[in-house]
Amino acid sequence: MPEIGEVARIVHFLRKHLVGKTLATVKAQDDVNVYGKVGTTAAEVKKALTGKKVLDAGQQGKYFWLVMSSPPHPIMHFGMTGWIKFRNEETYYKPAKEEEEEDWPPRFWKLLLETAEEPKCEAAFVDSRRFARIRLLECDAKAIRQTTPLKENGPDPVIDKDIITEAWLVQKLRSKKIPVKALLLDQANISGIGNWVGDEILYHARIHPEQYSNTLNDEQLKQLHKSVLHICSTAVELLSDSSKFPDEWLFKHRWGKGKKDQKKELPNGEKIIHITVGGRTSAVVPRLQKKTGPVAGDVKSEDIDGDISPTEEDAEAKPAKKRKAGSKLPTTGDAQQNEARSTTGSGKRGRGKKADSEVNDSVKSPAKKRKAASTPEASPPVKEQKPKKARSGTKSTSVEDQDLASGRRSSTRVTSQRV
Q1: Which pLDDT score is estimated for 329?
Q2: Which of 163, 183, 166, 168 has the alpha carbon at shortest distance from 219?
Q3: Are 156 and 196 in contact (CB under 8 A)?
Q4: Is residue 199's pLDDT more than 60?
Q5: Around Cβ 350, how many Cβ atoms within 10 Å?
Q6: Dihedral of the CA atoms 199, 203, 208, 213 (nearest 10)?
Q7: Are the C-beta atoms of 133 and 34 separated by less than 8 Å?
Q8: Which of 63, 88, 324, 371 has its CA 20 to 30 A from that of 365?
């Protein structure tokens, strides 16, 4: 997912190619996710932008926008796989593979812009997974950051350094008891920090990502503040060009998880492990990022699992529940047991041994009556004991006797399984 540095990269190209120019042609491909989920339509966006001049481009964290000559102004979010391509220049933050020249418009385009001025510039907003968002803001350009959705997001660690002071960060961390990485990733606290930036900050600060935010000591808090500003500023200054990142950054070495031919360690031999904290994969150097206080309990090691690429969402699905060993398909006896549950009112799960006892008794009750009838006190003479022949191996021709025998076998099996 594009984070603060990747968004800064695209804002750079928007200023380079679109600012100061008029949008002569606008095409928008209707998408109920990209447009509809934020209360607009492709047709409305096309109408709002056509013929307007682009005055500037701006950013707050993972959001970015174009300032138009008059409202409304388009504000965008890349989601997991969104990006803006320019026909006359490669803009992607990862080295492009040597392939044949891509057709225009590119695949998965949602919005196409073409300038009136020569040389013409063509730009395309693309998104293959449709988690990106494009909306319109009816406000003055100066009020964009005071309007939803930006006003609900925290300050940007690059453009709002006057807000994100050490005292501000200390108060934020000590007021919450959550894993420190979860706090950094929450856009309501700080805008723009995503998964890899969060890991880089914590590695630089030598803090374990699962440690609770309110357990960090003064020295750790001071270093964390420096790391937040340093990592975010460097990523933005380098326009998220990873080839220019410092060699000692974790980013250069973290992507080996699950790949046979790639080492999972730093150049100095320090081991990199991967853990999941609250459903998010984190790269950690355990010898350097030691736990110095209470930690979150929902953490598991994932040293040997497959990696998640830096451009994909870092959420992982829970494994499907497996059928318990020994479970079988329903049989005739099982059906009788279910029927007994419904008639006795003891069929709900979690009722314990008493419920099981009631069920077994209800299934076995005909047999118990039969046994009672076979005793001298409850029945006349011996000729009434004919059903006992079924126990000695003689097959009963009575349907009722067969059902009872089946019910006994089923009850015995169910009881033994539960025990």
Answers
A1: 44
A2: 166
A3: no
A4: yes
A5: 5
A6: -70
A7: yes
A8: 324
Q: Token pair 């300050």 is at which residue?
A: 155
**Residue written as token pair 């500037």:** 56
Q: Is 57 left (phi over 0), alpha (psi -120 to 50) or beta?
A: beta
Q: Are 11 and 59 in contact (CB under 8 A)?
A: yes
Decide if pLDDT at 13 tops 80.
yes
**142-196 per-position pLDDT tens digit:** 999 999 999 999 999 999 999 999 999 999 999 999 999 999 999 999 999 999 9
360/343 Cα distance (integer angstroms): 13
Alpha-carbon dihedral 192, 195, 196, 200, rounded to 10 degrees: 80
DSSP codes of every residue in 334-376: HHHHHHHHHHHT--STT-HHHHHHHHHHHHHHHHHHHHHHTST
SS3 68: strand
Q: Supply 138's token pair.
A: 């009816």
**CA-based end-to-end distance of the chain:** 50
Q: How many Cβ atoms from other residues are within 10 Å of residue 320's Cβ?
A: 5
Q: And the tokens for 16?
A: 């380079």
Strands 54-60 and 122-126, by their bridges, are unpaired
Q: Rounded to whole angstroms, how far apart are CA atoms 370 and 405?
A: 12
Sign of the torsion formed by the C-alpha atoms of 37, 39, 42 and 48:
negative
Number of H-type helices and E-type strands within the chain: 9, 11
Q: 394-399: list long-range contacts, CB under 8 Å, 24+ apart.
A: none
Task: Report the distance separating Cα 201 and Cα 146, nearest Å.
Answer: 28
Q: Decide: residue 239, CB within 10 A, 0-12 exposed, 13-18 middle, 19+ buried.
A: middle
Q: State phi, psi for 17 to the nearest 5 degrees.
A: -110, -25
User: 46-66 burial string, b = 16+ CB within 10 Å, else e?
Assistant: bebbeebbbebbbbbbbbbbb
Three-state secondary structure string covering 158-222: CCCCCCCCHHHHHHHHHCCCCEHHHHHHCCCCCCCCCHHHHHHHHHHHCCCCCEEHHHCCHHHHH
Contact predicate 225/207, CB 8 Å: no
Place of tokens 């539960």: 418
Residues comprising the chain, all counted: 419
Which carries the bigger pLDDT value, residue 354 or residue 278?
A: 278
Exposed (0-12), middle (13-18) or buried (19+): which is 99, by Cβ within 10 Å? exposed
